[in-house]
Design goal:
Structural class: alpha/beta
Distance between the termini: 34 Å
CATH class: Alpha Beta
Order of helices and strands: EHEHEHEHEE
CATH architecture: 3-Layer(aba) Sandwich
Largest sheet: 6 strands, parallel
Strand content: 15-25%
Helix content: 25-40%
Strand order of the largest sheet: 5-4-1-2-3-6
Radius of gyration: 14 Å
Number of helices: 4
Length: 158
């Protein structure tokens, strides 16, 4: 049996919200994605961002919609998603088999799956049902309460 997921890494464009930030076509966050984000957070699952695009525009959008504080690590740039996931795992001190990745684009999920077969990938259209999957069971404490690295500060990864 694979371990429960400890962190879900989100692509933002066409996943957390419809549209693309850099094209100025993005909308408010999708209600189903927001529910999944909150439900999984309540279960002790961390969230991170691995998204392509302009960092400043995307960060502004995260702040404006009040979701920035929900992410423990943020990777925004033009590199490979698999490289971003490795940096996020290292930053958060997690093994790759405890990380999930959600993206609307099949080619992006395929790139991650090929480079990092231990990472579980999910289609954005299924965001609202993720909390029902067994791998998203609540994280049970095994000792003192763990907080993301640096306490409550978010870790911007460049």
């Amino acid at each position: 049996m694979r371990p429960a997921l400890r962190c879900l890494v989100w692509e933002l464009d066409n996943t957390l919200w419809d549209g693309v930030v850099c094209d100025a076509t993005s909308t408010a966050p999708r209600p189903g994605s927001l529910r999944a984000l909150q439900t999984l957070s309540d279960r002790g699952i961390w969230h991170a961002v691995a998204s392509r695009g302009d960092r400043d525009l995307t960060m502004d959008k995260l702040y404006r919609h009040g979701v920035y504080e929900m992410f423990s690590a943020i990777e925004i740039g033009w590199g490979r998603k698999s490289s971003s996931l490795v940096r996020i795992a290292t930053t958060l001190g997690l093994s790759l088999d405890t990380i999930g990745f959600i993206d609307a684009e099949p080619i992006e999920r395929a790139e991650v799956q090929r480079a990092l077969p231990r990472v579980r990938c999910y289609a954005a259209r299924n965001a609202d049902v993720l909390p029902a999957l067994p791998e998203f069971r609540p994280v049970l404490p095994t000792g003192p309460n763990r907080t993301p690295p640096l306490g409550f500060a978010r870790v911007p990864v460049l």
